[in-house]
Write a structure and sequence with these properties.
Elements: H1 7-10, H2 18-29, E1 38-42, E2 47-53, E3 62-67, E4 70-75, E5 97-102, E6 107-115, E7 118-125, H3 141-146
Antiparallel strand pairs: 1-2, 2-7, 3-4, 4-5, 6-7
Length: 147
């Protein structure tokens, strides 16, 4: 694995050192697993959706958790509740899985719904007033504060 230094980018930015951790985490966790498949969609400026293919799972088999800015989606294999069934071919995978998504600042999970084998997780960006851009006036206001 090749090391990539983010130091040159930090010279012109303030507070973005978390990106270095994010890239390192992505490189470490890229183990090639793509089960279950998922999409990340953007619906408008501040609305996002993750769609996870959860064929064969019920809502009670799935768990969503947000902790420290990381959304974790996990699914567990159910006990076989169908009696007297012998599979001649079992192509629908129901193995356990765990997906993790790092959420950007001010992203909140609003809800989730399992519909037709797809788990839809809706998120929205809610930027508080103090985090919105504000105009800084240039003038003699500093002198008024000092005097």
């Amino acid at each position: 694995m090749t090391a990539f230094s983010m130091a040159p980018l930090f010279r012109q930015s303030i507070g973005f050192d978390r990106f270095n951790d994010l890239f390192e985490s992505a490189l470490r966790n890229d183990n090639g697993s793509s089960y279950p498949p998922y999409n990340i969609e953007k619906h408008g400026d501040d609305h996002y959706r993750i769609v996870v293919a959860a064929a064969g799972f019920q809502d009670t088999d799935l768990e969503l958790q947000v902790e420290r800015g990381v959304l974790t989606v996990s699914g567990g294999k159910r006990e076989n509740t169908t009696e007297n069934v012998a599979y001649l071919h079992q192509g629908i995978a129901q193995r356990a899985f765990k997906l993790s998504f790092r959420l950007a600042d001010h992203i909140e999970v609003k809800g989730a719904e399992l519909l037709n084998g797809l788990l839809n997780i809706d998120m929205v960006r809610i930027v508080p007033e103090e985090a919105k851009p504000k105009r800084i006036p240039i003038g003699n206001e500093r002198l008024a504060l000092e005097g």
